[in-house]
Amino acid sequence: MRYAQLGLMAVLLACAAAAYGQEKQAGAALDQKSGRFWRSYGVPEDRLFFPRHWIRGYTEFEGAAPTNEPDLGRCAQVSASQFGGRNDPCAAYARYMFGGYLEVQPVGRTVLRHIFIFYMPRLSFGHNVPQFSYTASFEPIAYERSLGLGMELPKHFELRLTQHQVDWLGRYRGDLGAADLHTTGPYGLYATIGLRWYFGGYGRVTGGPQ
Question: Burial, 160: exposed, middle or buried (Cβ in 10 Å; 0-12, 13-18, 19+)?
């Protein structure tokens, strides 16, 4: 498994290098044709406030098959037979996930047009006890979200400041017995500074060669 992961990473890096080379060649050809270097980056300039496509994103709904439920890290991994089997009150293994991504870029001119806010919510539902009970319950479990501030940079890069947290829902706000680990949810509470690079035409590449 370790070697398979390393091989997959090597393939990804090779694809990224190939895509970057193609973009560099295309940009050089355009520079020669126009007689100047491309000086702009990011989304094209538009009206000052609320330009076209200033709000964008997606929503998604996922369902997990029995015995493949996401473990939200709330319940102990030891056999549930020690805590009541199918009656174990700690059943934070999701059957359904609803989430999405929202990006808001309200300014269309000046350097502020490169600033955007993003929001990534994810709601988990279900009631399952591995090896004992697999149900279609839509019981709420957790509300996970990331909120942050981003800035477009040249060469398809973005600087992102992200804050992530999780709130337990319904009965998961309280104690769930001996199997309850009292964790802070998937990945818990954290804040990061990140640098993202888009390649191969993926992402918000709408401003021409960058």
Answer: middle
